[in-house]
User: Which sequence fits this backbone?
């Protein structure tokens, strides 16, 4: 199921409301729907790529059968193709008329969903969507993701090293240039093990007074 979008502000109080009469707005909305029908290219009112509807087909689609409705249709098309100039106000054209009675909706991509890119057929749009890689799969996305991982891992590793042993941190401060992912993982693992060993040693240097329950520092064994 396909949908098209309407500019709410423009439809209710903007140029569309100012320059198109009630019946003309109905015809213009039919044109927008035809542009999203996908029989030809999106954003183009055509039966097939480069082949437009006949005048009679458009009149029937817009349900303009009486002389009054046909005059309304012609007035709407004229305004949409040539624009409107009323005193100090003007409305830019909305349509371009191409050979073979093909109409192009000028601002299609501005208001319609990106799943209906202007100038593509429905099959081409689906193929493009299917083959389009996710952002993280593109070369730039991979590079940004890798850089983000490296920065986060390296910063975390150096912060951990500064807490455990500044000497270890100094060893890796120059690694901010181009460390490999493998090196970073190894460094992180070594630093976490060093921190864990330091915590174990700290617990081993503490003693609990059985009478008071207070924790006191024990003498550090020689060689530590």
Assistant:
């Amino acid at each position: 199921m396909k949908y098209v979008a309407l500019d709410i502000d423009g439809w209710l109080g903007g140029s569309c409301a100012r320059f198109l009469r009630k019946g003309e707005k109905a015809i213009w909305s039919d044109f927008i729907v035809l542009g999203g029908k996908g029989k030809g290219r999106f954003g183009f009112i055509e039966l097939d790529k480069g082949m437009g509807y006949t005048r009679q087909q458009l009149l029937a689609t817009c349900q303009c059968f009486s002389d009054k409705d046909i005059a309304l249709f012609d007035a709407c098309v004229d305004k949409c193709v040539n624009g409107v100039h009323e005193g100090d106000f003007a409305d830019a054209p909305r349509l371009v008329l191409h050979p073979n009675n093909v109409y192009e909706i000028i601002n299609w991509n501005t208001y319609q969903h990106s799943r209906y890119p202007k100038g593509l057929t429905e099959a081409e749009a689906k193929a493009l969507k299917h083959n389009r890689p996710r952002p993280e799969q593109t070369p730039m996305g991979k590079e940004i993701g890798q850089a983000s991982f490296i920065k986060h891992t390296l910063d975390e590793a150096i912060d951990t090293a500064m807490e455990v042993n500044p000497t270890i941190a100094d060893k890796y401060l120059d690694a901010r240039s181009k460390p490999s992912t493998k090196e970073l993982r190894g460094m992180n693992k070594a630093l976490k093990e060093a921190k864990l060993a330091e915590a174990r040693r700290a617990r081993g240097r503490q003693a609990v007074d059985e009478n008071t329950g207070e924790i006191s520092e024990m003498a550090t064994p020689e060689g530590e």
